[in-house]
Amino acid sequence: MDPRIVDNHTSDSYRVNVVGPKTPVLAVLCGAQHPPDMNSIESVADVRYTDDGGLPGALRGADALFVYDFLSTAVPGAWAAADRISWVHTASAGVDLVMFPELCESDVVLTNSRGVFDDSIAEYVLGVVIAFAKDLPRSIDLQRERRWQHRESERIAGRRALVVGTGPIGRAIARMLRAAGMAVAGMGRRAREDDPDFGTVHASADLVRALPGFDYVVAVAPLTEQTKGMFDAAAFAVMKPSARFVNVGRGELVVTSDLVTALRDGQLAGAALDVFETEPLPSDHPLWTLPNVLVSPHMSGDFAGWRNTLVEVFADNFARWHTDRPLRNVVDKELGYVPSGH
Questions:
Q1: Which of 20, 51, 100, 187 is the most buried if burial means most Cβ atoms within 10 Å?
Q2: What's the pLDDT tens digit per position in 306-327?
Q3: Which of 298, 307, 320, 342 is flagged as catalytic?
Q4: Is residue 298 annotated as a catalytic residue, yes or no?
Q5: Residue 145 appears among annotated catalytic residues
Q6: Among this protein's residues, is 342 annotated catalytic?
Q7: What is the pLDDT of residues 254-302, one digit of tens each?
Q8: Phi, psi angle pair for 226, to nearest 5°
């Protein structure tokens, strides 16, 4: 073992101490699954690996926090112990789980992992669009029953898609769907007609007015006070009965009971859902058994090797932070996401 490193194991944390002057202290919230490829960081920092229960102790005296377990809800409750933190990085594009008042109102810099999942999520969206159009779920069911039942399918070329959320993931989705021949528009904070990826961008305030014109509606907006519950009974009521709804953003963007009602009543032709208000989705939830719904377990962005890529993004920012250079992916804590161009 390197003589500079001392390993201290406890039930809730694993610590790598690097001896040296002005050594930064980094808390890593990771649970039982440690992030890979942390050697370069461990060589220059005192790294404290911890789970939810050990987070307060890991935060005391720490200079920075890496939220590798980005589904954890432990940070707000442990934050009172953070007496020296200047930077928090989360291994996710969404930051809603760390956007609590004490952090938002502080001088602590928040960064995210924007850019890691863009193309993977776009591929997922194109995949479910094709699955709906070509009736692939029904084909799988018929194959299991060994039934030969000829059907006609739909074309996706020329179909209209509205991507609600114009950040990098939304833009990747727009480019992917356009490449498949679909007509794509976006929806963001302000309306415009000359966007390079969407062409037309509708203002979020015009959601209900815009929805009737689209065959596919893709939700990928960040979760903020303004977007929470934006897809409700009023929104579903104006969509085409032949339209499909895809959610790869946050479960809380949707009033789930309203979505279930709309699907049961034929107000929508189908939904592909990768995120939910409650995760895991309870086994008795009606979304599991509705025939026109595709359920996936929050995996649309998770490609082989994604954990290594998340650490690479963090390691780059850590090197910048450690040498007083500008950080990438700095979240505007008032907006709740990284503004374009940052």
A1: 187
A2: 999 999 999 999 999 999 999 9
A3: 298
A4: yes
A5: no
A6: no
A7: 999 999 999 999 999 999 999 999 999 999 999 999 999 999 999 999 9
A8: -80, -30
Give the per-residue pLDDT at 22.
Answer: 80
Query: Is the distance from CB of 61 to CB of 84 less than 8 angstroms?
Result: yes
What is the reported pTM? Answer: 0.90
Which pLDDT value is given to residue 188? Answer: 96
- Please tell me which residue in 4, 264, 279, 325 is annotated as part of the active site: 279
What are the tens digits of pLDDT across the range 28-85?
999 889 999 999 999 999 999 999 999 999 999 999 999 999 999 999 999 999 999 9
